[in-house]
Amino acid sequence: MTDAQIDADYNVRNTVSPELFDATVEEYRRRSREVVDGLDGFADLRYDPDSTERLDVWGTGGDLRPVFVAIHGGYWRALSRHHTAFMSRMLDAAGIATVAVDYGLAPHTPLEEIVRQVRAAVAWVYHYGAEHGLDPSRIVVGGSSAGGHLTAATMVSGWQADFGLPDDVVRAAMPISGLFDIRPLVNSFANEWLGLDDARADALSPMLQTDRVGPRAVIAVAEHDGVGFLSQSRMFHDAWARHSESELLVVPDRNHYDVFLDLAEPESALSRALLGLFAGLAHT
């Protein structure tokens, strides 16, 4: 595949107009701000002693609640947790808490460090979540675009022991419109801020780490997503399903950006799938 074809397949900004992109990102922020107004929770918590990154907890109260760890997209270089809480009201109504996570952004933060920080956020939920109304035995991770890649980085094996976690700390997962084999990005426009070489891209590709049993997953992607994101979602589902329970969900009439907003609507296919992941969990 030529570099020009890789750019065409992975530059999802070209799949929507600039006006629609700007409006959707603003809706992330507006709806996130609106839905957390009045929700019980804890804001601006530092989760990682080795960085200054923060997270917010929304929708707590009463017994320990299962928790959705929400990871924002932005091609690893944009957006924040403040764009990523719009599902918290929907989940609160179902008795589920939301943890919206920040991570350092490229190019200032290397992708290895971004992955480590997201895993550290999961570790914080496990080790300290009970102090904030969260059930450490019922953690589901999900995210969109770059957040889909980072979600997959928490699904694979081999990292948990470094954080004092059980292998099954992530009980279920929903990567949405993610990238799982980032080797093509070495020859793409995205490497302007990622700065990857082939060896690092190999190590950072969850697609190459699917040889062990992992959490139940819904691999979601928008019908009108970028070519690369559609093909990688299908391939990751096929790879994950070889050892673990996996469902591929292609969301009709959605693009790379607005599909994530479906988690604000309780009757959407995406929300029903996420709630189904929680329904399958039991206390451990």
From TrEMBL:
Alphabetical UniProt keywords: Hydrolase
Location of the Alpha/beta hydrolase fold-3 domain: 69-178
Pfam family, one: Abhydrolase_3
Gene Ontology molecular functions: hydrolase activity
Listed PANTHER family: AB HYDROLASE SUPERFAMILY PROTEIN C4A8.06C, KYNURENINE FORMAMIDASE
Name recorded for this polypeptide: Alpha/beta hydrolase
Organism the protein comes from: Rhodococcus parequi
High-level lineage: Bacteria, Bacillati, Actinomycetota, Actinomycetes, Mycobacteriales
